[in-house]
Write a structure and sequence with these properties.
- About 1% of the residues have low confidence.
- The termini are far apart.
- It is built from 26 helices and seven strands.
- The protein is mostly helical.
- The strands form two sheets. The protein has a four-stranded parallel sheet with strand order 2-1-3-4.
- Helix 21 crosses helix 22.
- Helix 25 links the parallel strand 6 and strand 7.
Length: 641
């Protein structure tokens, strides 16, 4: 076999379709970008981020892509994407210059073969097609990969001394040209859109801190309350890099599979949501078709007008039904699952802010809760002077201005709820037994503001936060301990932007340290089997998965893990005000979670959040007993006595 090198015919057949499609794709991406720049300005360190792109793409993104059970998909993506990315420059260089000889030709052939293998894996992945995946042009993608790789390989094979292969030149050229059209043009408007838009999205990501080592970056940013419009009404109210992020969606449906609202049949599908937000900025589009083999559950009927940068997104004549907005629990399962790192929850809260503060359109009992917060500083409307009534027999010390303590125990709204009071009483008893110097704020402790902020009322949140920061600044303490992950998250991660930086520790982490230090020495737990439910705001929001399990292990009750645990845990249904807006679905979210607990055969569901305890205890019998980890630890301490 002799290397005859590129021929005029093969050069034209390879280079013209590829260069033509690349040119068209660049024009298409530029045309599509007009939608992004209809958004508000946003500062982006573009060149520094561009330099970091390989690390972002092959590190942060690939870590999500390769998570089980998506290992096969990850390998498919590596081969298909790697084959195409390598084939394009190598094929152009070889066929246009002839440099590299047979050695480079074999490298081009290898890249083309890898692309074909990736295409075969993509075909396998879609036969039968998983319900979460989109159809349409996505169903042609495996064939396009095989046509591109096969055609390019055939045309390159001719140059390696196989002129007889020219007999099939026309067929190979046609397949290759069609593959180029599907793949390269698809970068502008088709299935490969995420390849370009995804890279641009990573470079200009609205939360660049997500890519820093050990960063969670789950805090909402303060809203400028002096702005002429509060929140997002139209696509043009989003920042331009948020609009770009919506266009980076690969329509893989992982967010949908992770979403508790979707699985419960509520009118929220995160995949559909992002499709709608991406289309809403285009004045040529109405609603976008939902490309899936499953219908959109509990989808609400709307009659959308044409989209546009200045058109409302939410409404009965808009692109998004209002119920979709309020079905979200803000659990961030969709964000955690998204391989393109899209920020679904930020978009939902931005839309809620306009609906709440500009339109006053909060459904269910959400409006009543906000009124209570506005008038009484508590969600339930309870007088602040009753904050410590449940613990009158435990006589906790109440801090006055200028007083000092080691640990400030933040009680939260659990102090007004019988279920939450059991946890707080167990916590106080354990602190006493460990000789911890602790105190409470009593009537000076207002609500932390989490519910108000997630329901979109930034005015109430900032007022509560600033007053709490002033209260905390008037006393002296080393750290705040709380049993409520929502309090933990807001004070630890969202108060600093308003001027209040405090060390905040979850009660399970603090108790685990006391056990490790020998200040609490529990006995063996009862013979009951235990499973543990990871609260969203403790786990996904703050990365604390180990401490509750350390405590359970210390009392001899290592949990039987539910199928969905740790960062993939299923929400209890309380977060984001969902327990107050109460959007109807086919099932209740806590019922689903308790069914998952039932599958473990456990007698007890251990929780580490008072809100989770309320939601899971609200599930009808027969069900497992619901106990806070602090209660289980106290039981084990009593067993030792």
């Amino acid at each position: 076999m002799n290397d005859i090198g590129p021929l005029p015919a093969t050069t034209l057949a390879v280079a013209l379709p590829l260069l033509g499609c690349i040119t068209a794709a660049v024009i298409g991406v530029a045309w599509r970008s007009r939608r992004w720049f209809a958004g508000r300005p946003a500062e982006v360190d573009f060149w520094r981020r561009a330099w970091l792109l390989p690390r972002l793409y092959f590190g942060a993104v690939h870590d999500v892509v390769a998570r089980p059970p998506y290992t096969f998909s990850a390998r498919m993506h590596q081969l298909a994407a790697g084959g195409v990315v390598a084939s394009v420059p190598l094929a152009l260089f070889y066929h246009l210059t002839g440099w590299g000889g047979a050695g480079l030709a074999w490298v081009v052939l290898a890249a083309a073969a890898i692309t074909v293998v990736g295409g075969l894996m993509a075909w396998k992945r879609r036969n039968p097609q998983p319900a979460r995946l989109s159809g349409g042009a996505f169903k042609r993608l495996p064939w396009a990969l095989m046509a591109f790789g096969g055609g390019l390989g055939w045309l390159t094979w001719v140059t390696l001394g196989h002129p007889e292969a020219m007999r099939h030149f026309t067929v190979a050229t046609a397949l290759y040209a069609w593959g180029c059209l599907e793949l390269i043009m698809g970068m502008a408007t088709g299935p490969m859109r995420h390849a370009v838009h995804g890279a641009l999205h990573l470079i200009s990501h609205p939360r660049p801190e997500r890519f820093e080592p050990a960063a969670r970056a789950t805090n909402l940013r303060p809203l400028d309350l002096d702005a002429s419009k509060l929140g997002v009404e139209t696509p043009g109210d989003f920042a331009w890099n948020q609009l770009l992020g919506f266009d980076a969606c690969v329509e893989c449906g992982r967010c949908k599979e992770a979403c508790p609202a979707w699985s419960a049949g509520l009118p929220l599908n995160p995949k559909k949501l992002i499709q709608v937000l991406a289309a809403s900025a285009d004045n040529r589009q109405r609603d976008v078709s939902y490309r899936s083999t499953l219908p959109y559950p509990q989808g609400r009927a709307i009659e959308p007008t044409t989209g546009g940068a200045d058109q409302p997104i939410v409404g009965m004549q808009a692109m998004l039904h209002p119920d979709t907005l309020w079905a979200c629990t803000t659990c961030r399962a969709c964000v955690e699952a998204c391989p393109m790192m899209i920020e679904h929850v930020d978009a939902i809260v931005d839309l809620r802010r306009f609906a709440t503060m500009e339109s006053g359109a909060v459904p269910g009992k959400g409006g009543e809760a906000l009124d209570n917060l506005r008038l009484t500083d508590t969600v339930t409307g309870t007088d602040l002077g009753r904050r410590a009534e449940f613990a009158v027999d435990l006589t906790p010390r109440v801090l006055a201005a200028g007083d000092e303590t080691d640990v400030l125990l933040w009680l939260g709204e659990a102090a007004f709820d019988l279920r939450g009071q059991r946890t707080l009483r167990a916590m106080m008893t354990l602190l006493r037994r460990a000789d911890v110097d602790f105190a409470i704020l009593g009537a000076a402790e207002a609500d932390c503001g989490d519910l108000a902020r997630r329901l979109g009322d930034e005015i109430i949140f900032q007022d509560l936060a600033r007053r709490n920061i002033a209260t905390l600044g008037a006393v002296r303490f080393n750290r705040i301990v709380t049993a409520d992950p929502h309090v933990l998250h807001v004070i630890r991660n969202e108060y600093p932007a308003l001027g209040g930086s405090f060390e905040v520790i979850h009660h399970t982490a603090f108790l685990a340290d006391l056990v490790d230090d020998g200040r609490l020495v529990p006995g063996a737990a009862s013979a009951a089997t235990v499973t543990y439910h990871d609260p969203c705001y403790l786990g996904r929001y703050n990365g604390e998965f180990a401490a509750p399990r350390r405590l359970l292990a210390a009392i001899g009750a290592a949990p039987r893990e539910m199928e969905r645990n740790r960062s993939q845990s299923h929400c209890c249904g309380w977060g984001g005000g969902a327990a107050f807006t109460d959007i109807a679905g086919e099932h209740r979210i806590p019922d689903q979670r308790m069914e998952q607990a039932r599958d473990t055969g456990a007698d007890v569901v251990a929780v580490a959040c008072p809100n989770c305890a309320v939601m899971l205890e609200g599930v009808l019998q027969p069900r497992a007993e619901v106990r806070d980890v602090a209660e289980l630890l106290l039981d084990a301490m009593d067993e030792r006595l």
